[in-house]
Specification:
With 293 residues, the chain is of the alpha+beta class. The protein has 6 helices and 13 strands.
């Protein structure tokens, strides 16, 4: 059976080969690429989205769909446009209903890799800050203590660099833009996340005596929000057995970390801190963080 799902958009002349990360008779997990919507965008419905492309391919009897006997696929959750990694799909409506119930509980573990600006003082902490849609900026979220929905994210430092940190974030709730807003809230915006205060990662920022050839424009190592859905763990909606799905690092994040290790490594490991940072004040970055932007 094909290890990739091949999709194309005649309107935009784009083509994708999307790796299959996990599959059985009930579930299909894909490694979503950056730049592809999960579902239709309410603000730009003409933009290609994964679910429409999948449904079109199934209706057309594409080889990867035909060999699986697929007549149905539906997503149990979403990933943002530029977020890469594990996306889980149901192969039938009854399984989708069970998945939807599971995703509303704490039984589903969602772990993300995040490359951020700044240096947290602690190696592990939790952010609890309610989130709501921004009242005047469509498509954005913000911390809203009065009207926001309960949201919680556990963050752990994986690797520290000069002015940057690689984190693993475990989402205990599933709000829109949750990791992005929570990280910005504590003064650690995602690299490349222009909506929430992040900047692209440039080699010229890292490499001493960087020289660009005349007439050339520097291309960022990372220009999208540096967020990757690395791991998803949940009880199988039919069998109850634990399912763990992992997505390999995307190429741009791999290259970015490679150059950070080469040119922005810290001279010696910092001593681990204990405890958690103080609770964030309303709509302000958490005190106790060293923001090196």
């Amino acid at each position: 059976m094909s290890a990739v799902v091949k999709l194309s958009s005649p309107e935009t002349r784009e083509f994708w080969e999307i790796p299959v990360l996990f599959e059985d008779e009930h579930l299909l997990a894909l490694d979503k690429p950056a730049g592809l919507l999960t579902s239709p965008d309410r603000y730009d419905p003409r933009r290609p989205n994964l679910m429409k492309l999948l449904h079109t391919a199934i209706a057309a009897g594409k080889p990867w769909a035909r060999e699986r006997g697929l007549t149905y696929l539906s997503n149990a959750h979403r990933l943002d446009l530029e977020t890469t990694g594990v996306l889980l799909l149901a192969k039938s409506k009854p399984v989708l209903v069970k998945l939807a119930d599971l995703f509303g509980t704490t039984h589903v573990v969602k772990e993300y890799l995040a490359l951020v600006h700044g240096a947290p003082l602690q190696d592990q902490w939790e952010v609890r800050a309610p989130l709501a849609a921004h009242p005047t900026r469509p498509g954005l979220m913000r911390v809203d203590p009065q009207h926001g929905k309960k949201s919680a994210t556990i963050c752990e430092v994986l690797e520290r660099f000069r002015s940057f940190t690689l984190l693993r974030c475990r989402l205990l709730t599933g709000r829109t833009h949750q990791a992005r807003v929570h990280l910005r809230h504590v003064g650690l915006p995602l690299v490349g996340d222009a909506l929430y205060g992040g900047q692209p990662l440039l080699l010229s920022q890292l490499k001493p005596e960087y020289r660009l050839k005349p007439g050339r424009t520097e291309r960022p190592l990372l220009s999208r929000p540096a967020l990757h859905a690395e791991r998803l763990s949940l009880p199988h909606p039919v069998t109850g057995a634990t399912v763990q799905i992992t997505a390999p690092w995307p190429k741009d994040l791999t290259v970015a970390v490679k150059y950070l290790r080469r040119f922005a490594a810290l001279p010696s490991p910092s001593a681990p801190e204990t405890g958690a940072p103080p609770a964030p004040s309303d709509n302000q970055p958490t005190a106790g963080y060293k923001n090196e932007l």
